[in-house]
Amino acid sequence: MKKLIALVLALICVLSLAGCQKTSASCQKTISASEVYLFPEPTILITGSFYSQGKETTFEIGSENYGPNDFISWFYDLELTACDEPEAVEGAESYTFKVAGKDAFTYEDRGSEAYIIIDSNYYKVSNPSTPPIN
After folding, report:
1. How far is CA 46 from the centre of its chain?
2. Largest alpha-carbon pair distance within the chain?
3. Nearby residues of 49 by Cβ (< 8 Å), 6 or more positions away
4. Average pLDDT along the chain
5. Strand ranges, E, within 15-119
6. How far apart are CA 134 and CA 5, in angstroms?
7. Omega before 128 cis (within 30°)?
8. Percentage of the chain lying above the pLDDT 90 cut
9. pLDDT given at position 42
10. Predicted pLDDT at 15
C-alpha cells in the first residue's frame, strides 16, 4: 500500500511539473504595440533613420511626404511577444524612430522575422510588415 501511495504521489509531482513547464511557455502571450509604447498627443513629426547594407537614409514622418496617422496606426496594429535579444544576423535592415527628439523604438527587419526594440527590451513581431515611410 505504501508503494502504491508513493507511486501516485510521484506521478502527481511529475505531472504537475510538466504542467508548470507548459504554463510558463504559454506565458509569452501576444501583446499589442500600444502596450509597450504610446505616442504622445499630438504627434506631428517623427524623425528616423533607415539602415541597410552599411548605408543610412534619414526621413521625416509628418513632413509633406508622409502622414503620421498612417504610421501610428501601422505601429499600433503590430502584435508583439516579449523575448530575449536574438543573435545578430548579417543583412538585417533597421529603422530607428525618434518622437519629439527622443528615441522611441527601433524596428529590425530580418526578412522572415522582425523585432521591435524599446529601451534594450526586445519584442518579436508576430505580423511583420515594412513601416509605411515611403
Report:
1. 19
2. 82
3. 56, 57, 58, 59, 95, 96
4. 82
5. 31-32, 46-52, 55-61, 79-83, 93-99, 102-109, 114-118
6. 68
7. no
8. 56
9. 85
10. 42
Beta pairing partners, 109: 93, 114
Q: Residue with C-alpha cell 526586445?
A: 122
Alpha helices of 27-131 — where are they, by DSSP H?
Answer: 68-76
The CA-based dihedral angle spanning residues 97, 117, 119, 41, taken in that order and rounded to the nearest 10 degrees: 40
The pTM (predicted TM-score) of the whole model is 0.75
Polymer length in residues for the chain? 134
For residue 93, the one-letter residue type is E
Residue ranges of the chain with per-residue pLDDT less than 50: 7-9, 13-27
Name, in order, each residue with C-beta under 8 angstroms of 83's C-beta and a sequence gap of 6 or more: 28, 115, 122, 123, 124
